[in-house]
Amino acid sequence: MMISDAMEDEEKWLAEGIAGIQHNAFYMHRALDSNNLREALKYSAQLLSELRTSRLSPHKYYELYMRAFDELRKLEMFFKEEERHGCSVVDLYELVQHAGNILPRMYLLCTVGSVYIKSKEAPAKDVLKDLVEMCRGVQNPIRGLFLRSYLAQISRDKLPDIGSDYEGDGDTVMDAVEFVLQNFSEMNKLWVRMEHQGPARVRDKMEKERNELRDLVGKNLHVLSQIEGIDLDLYKETVLPRVLEQVVNCKDELAQYYLMDCLIQVFPDEYHLQTLETLLGACPQLQPTVDIKTVLSQLMERLSSYAASSPEVLPEFLQVEAFAKLSSAIGKVIETQGDMPIVGAITLYVSLLTFTLRVHPDRLDYVDQVLGLCVKKLANKPKLGDSRATKQVVALLSAPLEKYSDIVTSLTLSNYPRVMDHLDNGTNKIMAMVIIQSIMTNHANVSSADKVEVLFELIKGLIKDLEGDSEDELDEEDFNEEQNSVSRVIHVLYNDDPEEMLKIICTVRKHIMNGGPRRLPFTIPPLVFSALKLVRRLQNQDGDVAGEENPATPRKIFQLLNQTIEALSYVPSPELALRLYLQCAEAANDCDLEPVAYEFFTQAFVLYEEEIADSKAQVTAIHLIIGTLQRTNVFGVENRDTLTHKATGYSAKLLKKPDQCRAVYACSHLFWVDDQDGIKDGERVLLCLKRSLRIANAAQQMASVARGSSGPVTLFVEILNKYLYYFEKGNPQITSAAIQGLIELIKTEMQSDTVTPDQTSDAFFACTLRYIQFQKQKGGAMGEKFDTIKV
């Protein structure tokens, strides 16, 4: 209620002030129209008296000021035309000083002073000096600031600058600089004084009002930056030291922050670069509460853009040792502001690193030095708990990744992993994912064991449990995505040199083996396949070279793989381990290493016997074993017989009869390999097929007893297809009579009342008969063979 009342009062006072200005302006205009100087001065002074109010906030006072300003423009036009009022400008300058009150007097004096300078009847510097000195008579902060703002406004185009009409006859650029600096200094004092006016309870309101007035003070710096005659030397020797002196000595947080920011924004980047030491030297002298990190960040941003604007300016940065000076200044600021929050310090290092990457991208030592400074700041601190500080550390670590698309460059930075160690576990994982994403996106080639060591140290949050990790907190989907990302990285690690590649594989193995039972099923397969790729490259070496000059041999890699896959059986993940053993067995077969291949098959059978209990998993596993064994040709008669005997034995022991039947007829392929040197044992093929037929019969009978119907005839049709396959391949044990008998059996079964009708089985059988008919019609030797089969 009180606030709304105060606002209403203020609106009322503003309205009264505007009405007073309009009233006096009316009579002033009438006096101007009749060329009555005395009346014009009288009503203009009364008009300007409305600006003496202390009741208005800066925002409302500005509205009143602008009304008066518009009227003063018209008055100035009248003063310029001497023939209208018949008074010389010198006399006019004296005349207005008799105004009764100081505020109207000073506004009129400034207005006439503008005309006086333009008339060139007196040196510009004398008039300007007179005006800036006399304005000291107004010490109320708001009134004084607007008065001096008016002085700056009317004088900005009348300064004795190079190329201006007012240069010469003793008027120099230095006079212009001196005038603007003095006005700036006085305005800043008035602005700062507002902070200490009024009781503490209105301090927030005063702070808001000061913020509204800051542009009036900053306008002086803008005017300074527009003076053509201010070259680098003048800026370095006079302007900058005087401005910084005012900034430091005012000891006001708001003024120091705003003026430093203003200084950086309005003057050229080249000047900042050449006066870096002076500018940065002021930073530690500012109040501890000043947001210096933002000021320095903006300075570095400006300098970075300047460096990017043209390659020609880069030597200047090296010449002035910009990096060293910025680094030193940031260190001093952090040291001086002892209570600066950690997020502030890291933000400064992020800005310094961004500057370094843009200006000196080739100087990795600079980049590492910045990271080192951050490590030093974070030393003796626990894991970062502040989310804002964590975000800044992530920005710090991401900057080199974005700049150097090749991750290898970032891996050479010794302080990079040390910074990562200060992240909490969750953020550490996020950062590790960012690193992996960078590798995948940029197709980076991490091609040495040393670099892999550093990389896996960086992403350790993904490959093992960190201290304080809780399994309950981990989302299953996120976990799977993380591990799949690690797997992708393992796949892209590569080196043309087999020896170095083996070192990479060993390094990866060392790291991932600590991953625990949840991670190993994700990370071991890519490692195994990476090693098998290396084996294929070394396929013709057996590892028995004298002295073993090249340690990267298939035999050595297989030993490593055996130990690695064994870890999966303890996870336990037996199905996966079995698949990997079979992959290794196939690779050992291609390398002609019979004992190694035999050992891998043995391990696969041991897993099958001891670890795989689920019936579905057993079916899948036995078919994998049969398929892999069928493709191997390295075994001698004894070893092959042992393994095929094991495979057929396990096939016949599966839980469900249909599964037994299919596994046993699949085993027939172990005795008939259809290539030039492959085994072709027709008798044992026939034995497998007859055995599968017996099992199919037993399955039908069991179904009939259990359900009252014997089920579909799919198994018989499948076995018929196997008979046809071997008949076509020329197995002498498979006769047309046997096939004919099987066809008749299927037809009889299908016509039986106990068989459950099944469209799929019927269609399958019909297709098989059509195939026989097709072979008959082909003619030739094959057609003659099939002619004996009646369908």
Keywords:
39 helices, elongated, 72% helix, mainly alpha
Helical content stands at over 70%
Query: Mean pLDDT, rounded to whole units?
Result: 88
Which spans have pLDDT < 50 for at least 5 consecutive residues? 543-548
Radius of gyration, CA atoms, in whole angstroms: 46 Å
Largest β-sheet summary: none
Describe this entry's structure for a reader:
The longest helix is centred in the first third of the chain and has 32 residues, at 2-33. Helix content is 72%, strand content 0%. The radius of gyration is 46 Å and the shape is elongated. It is mainly α and 791 residues long. It has helices spanning 2-33, 37-49, 58-80, 82-85, 89-95, 102-119, 124-134, 141-155, 173-193, 203-226, 232-250, 253-266, 269-274, 276-282, 292-309, 314-319, 322-336, 342-359, 364-378, 387-403, 407-411, 416-420, 425-441, 449-458, 460-463, 476-492, 498-512, 520-537, 554-569, 574-590, 594-610, 615-631, 637-651, 657-667, 682-707, 714-729, 736-751, 759-778, 780-787. It contains 39 helices and no strands.
SSE blueprint:
Elements: H1 2-33, H2 37-49, H3 58-80, H4 82-85, H5 89-95, H6 102-119, H7 124-134, H8 141-155, H9 173-193, H10 203-226, H11 232-250, H12 253-266, H13 269-274, H14 276-282, H15 292-309, H16 314-319, H17 322-336, H18 342-359, H19 364-378, H20 387-403, H21 407-411, H22 416-420, H23 425-441, H24 449-458, H25 460-463, H26 476-492, H27 498-512, H28 520-537, H29 554-569, H30 574-590, H31 594-610, H32 615-631, H33 637-651, H34 657-667, H35 682-707, H36 714-729, H37 736-751, H38 759-778, H39 780-787
Helix pairs in contact: 1-2, 1-3, 2-3, 2-6, 3-6, 5-6, 6-7, 6-8, 7-9, 8-9, 8-10, 9-10, 9-11, 10-12, 11-12, 12-15, 14-17, 15-18, 17-18, 18-19, 18-20, 20-23, 23-26, 24-27, 26-28, 27-28, 28-29, 28-30, 29-30, 30-31, 30-32, 31-32, 32-33, 32-34, 33-34, 34-35, 34-36, 35-36, 36-37, 36-38, ...
